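2024-03-11 09:14:02 INFO queue: dequeued item Cytochrome P450, len=407
2024-03-11 09:14:02 INFO validating residues
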Amino acid sequence: MTDEVQETPTFPLAGSSYRCPAPQYARLREQGPVVRVHTEGGVDAWLVTAYEEARQALADPRLSRAETVKPGAPRIGGAMTSSPDMIISMDGAEHARLRRLAAGAFTARRIEAMRPGIRRIADGLLDGLAGETGTVDLVERFTVPMPLTVIGELLGVPMRVLRLFADNARDFVTVDDQSENSDSVNGMAKLYEYMTEVVAEKRAHPTQDLLSDLVRARDSGDRLSEQELVTFAFTLIGAGFDTTANQLASSVLALIAHHRDQWRWLAEDRTRIPRAVEELLRHVNLFSTDSAGNPRIAAEDLELGGVRIAKGDAVVVAISAANRDAAVFADPDRMDLAREHNPHLSFGHGMHLCLGKQLTRIELEIAIDGLVRRFPDLELAVPESEVPWHLGGINHALHTLPVLLKP
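2024-03-11 09:14:37 INFO prediction written
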């Protein structure tokens, strides 16, 4: 590292919550859009705090994810476990090759065609809650099973396997736990084992679903290695349900605990929900480290935000902080469900832009629509301070969300 700064904080910064990124980001952004920090992994990194520079970094092919998983790569704090054969760890042609194989299943048209089926899934779960009295755990009964069922139907994975994924996904997304017998590594091994069995079943008995399509691509054109196939499949499941489930649960909690007026505003006119979802994606902070957990390493010298970044330097993009940049978002710390200009970076940007962004949007729209329609007086069953969270993961993830339905 070359450029000096007066203070060198340690990343992940303290104080991140589902309601906002770590408060220190506001001061760091005044210091500069790209600042030098220590990381809990033991190496220094460049931390991108401002929107425009975050967008540039996410789209710059010189900032490599593949370099972070090579043998001997520096251990960067705030990172999740990944392996070289995961799409999130690939660059360039290798990344594009895998992305093309799944892209057809995630076109806007095909995802929009799933809307009636997603609504059927949501309505079925909400029907099961009708008439419930007393405390209900919305995580167990709705915010997890809904996206889990949706991604299972898209890929063609049976619910018994999906439940095993849900049980082990929390271990897999543990931050900075990469020792040989860590929960994160063991979680990945279990997911790989489950998916190997499902792939074998699909090979023997193919059906009309994305996973069968990937198996055919592997077996006929050899466009995937067996390891890539299995890893890609469990990556799609994890990304397809866990992030959506966490975003949904946190959004509901934020609305009923802190923005009751806006919850009622949505119940009064549900056509407001699509725009509201964009604001929830921006304002409700999914990332426990304020980044998506995928740092980058510079593959060559470059300049970003007036700072020279040398080849081999680590770069962390603080997406949650970028989403609160006042240069782009008016009154950025206020939740405004009617916000019109909202180019948030919650799905990333550039080559790693989230494949499932449209699916997530539709799931959130349908889920929130169903809740405000069925349960406009939904409220927490306990004080918010007693609501339990999973700790140590890459995302802010509620363990339970105890509510009173009041239909």
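2024-03-11 09:14:37 INFO annotate: The chain has 15 helices and 13 strands.
2024-03-11 09:14:38 INFO item closed
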